[in-house]
Amino acid sequence: MEAVGIVNGSNNNHLIKLAAITANTKASTHSRAADFFFFGSVIGI
Q1: High-pLDDT (> 70) share of the chain, %
Q2: 15: which residues sit within 8 A by CB, 6+ positions away?
Q3: DSSP class of residue 2?
Q4: Are 3 and 39 in contact (CB under 8 A)?
Q5: CB-based contacts of 4, cutoff 8 Å, min separation 6
Q6: What secondary structure does DSSP assign to 2-41, as a single string?
Q7: What is the pLDDT of residue 11?
Q8: Which residue from 2, 13, 43, 44 lies 20 to 30 Å from 37 (Cα-Cα)?
Q9: Residues 11 and 2: beta-carbon distance below 8 Å
């Protein structure tokens, strides 16, 4: 979960949501392209 380190300085609620969504995403797809697009969208917000 590379994203955890990126959002660690952010608020805890955001971290929990991101971790939950990440687990959900990885359970449904193993596409690295999908992960890249997803994390790029989250960081951009």
Answers
A1: 33
A2: 4, 7, 8
A3: T
A4: yes
A5: 15, 18, 19
A6: THHHHHTTS-HHHHHHHHHHHHHHHHH---HHHHHHHHHH
A7: 61
A8: 13
A9: no
Residue with tokens 């990440």: 22
Instruction: Supply the angle between the helices 32-44 and 12-28 in degrees, to the nearest 10.
Output: 160
Residue 3: name the closest of 30, 28, 17, 29 by CA. Answer: 17
Structure tokens at 40: 């790029």
Tokens of 20: 């939950």
Task: State the pLDDT at residue 1.
Answer: 47
Determine the average pLDDT of the residues in 20-40: 69
- What's the Rg (C-alpha) of the chain? 10
Q: Is the separation of the CB atoms in 9 and 45 below 8 Å?
A: no
Give the tokens for residue 18.
């991101």
